[in-house]
Amino acid sequence: MQNKYITIDGKKVGPAYKPYIIAELSANHNGSIEKALESIEVAASCGVDAIKIQSYSPDTMTIDCDKSDFQIKGGLWDGYQLYDLYKWAQTPFEWHQQLFDKARSLGITLFSSPFDETAVDLLESLNAPAYKIASFELTDLPLIEYVAKTGKPIIMSTGMANIEEISEAISTAKEHGCNELIVLHCISAYPAPAEQSNLATIQDISTRFNVISGLSDHTLGTAVSVASVALGASLIEKHFTLNRADKGPDSTFSLEPGELKQLVKETNIAHKAIGKAGYDKKPVEVDNIKFRRSLYFVNDLSLGDIITSADIKRIRPGFGLAPKYYQEVIGQKVTRDIDRGTAVSWELISKEQ
Questions:
Q1: Global pTM?
Q2: Rounded to an integer, what distance in angstroms lies between the CA atom of residue 236 and that of residue 214?
Q3: Residue 44 CB: number of other CB atoms within 10 A?
Q4: Angle in degrees, CA 273, 219, 154, rounded to 5
Q5: For the chain, which end, N or C, has fewer CB atoms within 10 Å of the first or last residue's CB respectively?
Q6: Which helix (H) or strand (E) holds 12?
Q7: Does 17-57+92-274 match 283-350 in CATH topology?
């Protein structure tokens, strides 16, 4: 891998470090800056590494047009005109300064997904520490070029993209100044079915494109995110809401605070559990060796008696000879008087017949 880690706002992100967790606020403020500010505060208290917003206006996303092309048919947002959806879901540009100030006052990282060059300019004026390229913008190579020229770390999602499109996006970023890049496996469905997650792609992305990889997870719950850690995810992004009952644009597939805390805790445990391949006894196993089976005398014997199958058993505890010596011990003489319950050892046996 070209870089073993990248640094976002002072934190190292890579396979050797605990998973970097991003709470995606997206549109879950439901048009209220007070709710947006509260969400930042609550997400920070849940232990995430960063909070992400989205920077666009309806006019930078589409045009106000009621033709069929601009109507959403099916899915979570069925019936919406694109312009109206983005008007509802936007995080207004005039909020951004206050949101960044709030995050910095809490000591939590905030950055954004820009959807056009004007959003990048705004975020640069606020000294955003990193940028996210959304799945739907992965083929917008001019935008990726513009972001890359900031020299900031870039996180890009690959939902819907084929290998050629991912390769073009990565090449564009690297060719225009991006030296720190994370590429996220992503299924662009809302919510995404867990059985279509194909988490094995996370490691393939890392190997194929020589980048740090992670997961942008739109499945319900936390199981898929936790599993992704074992498959190499160094960064996990999950949508977050204060309460799914608020019924925001993204609330259906977002985590509530208790679930977000669980995600942080369990992904950290999963990362610690990976360790390294090896067959040496672990420190916690040493005391349990005594509970293995071993050979024990189960009858009283006198000096010179020949050991029969009735005289020994393979039982717990494990202080005697290993069970593999069972046949070798049978037929041998004992070298002293033996009490029932004595562990079999070589010094108690004479092989001279």
A1: 0.88
A2: 6
A3: 21
A4: 75
A5: C
A6: strand 11-13
A7: no
Dist. CA 50–CA 38, nearest whole Å? 15
Q: Is the CB of residue 134 less than 8 Å from the CB of residue 111? A: no
The amino acid at residue 337 is: D
Token pair recorded at residue 239:
């949508």
**Mean pLDDT on 271-280:** 91
How far is it, in rounded angstroms, from Cα 336 to Cα 338? 6
How far is residue 221's CA from residue 253's CA, in Å, rounded to a whole number? 8
Using CA atoms, how far apart are residues 29 and 4, in angstroms rounded to an integer? 35
**Confidence band of 79 (pLDDT split at 50, 70, 90):** confident
pLDDT attached to residue 126: 98
Domain 283-350 has CATH 3.90.1210.10: yes
User: How many residues comprise the chain?
Assistant: 353
Distance of CA 254 to CAs 24, 44, 242, Å? 9, 16, 9
Locate tokens 């739109």: which residue? Answer: 218
Structure confidence at residue 352 (pLDDT): 63
User: Which residues are registered as beta bridge partners of 144?
Assistant: none
Confidence grade of residue 2 (pLDDT, cut at 50, 70, 90) = low
**71 CB-near residues (< 8 Å, 6+ apart):** 79, 80, 81, 82
Q: What are phi and psi of 315, to 5 degrees?
A: -135, 170
Distance, CA of 35 to CA of 53 (rounded, Å): 13
DSSP-assigned states of every residue in 20-78: EEEEE-TTTTTT-HHHHHHHHHHHHHTT-SEEEEEE--HHHH-----SGGGB--SSTTT
List the one residue out of 258, 271, 335, 270 whose CA is nearest residue 297.
335
Asked whether the bond before 15 is cis by omega within 30 degrees of 0, the reply is: no
pLDDT at 353 over 60: no
Superfamily of domain 17-57+92-274: Aldolase class I (3.20.20.70)
Given a contact cutoff of 8 angstroms between Cβ atoms, the answer to whether 78 and 19 are in contact is: no
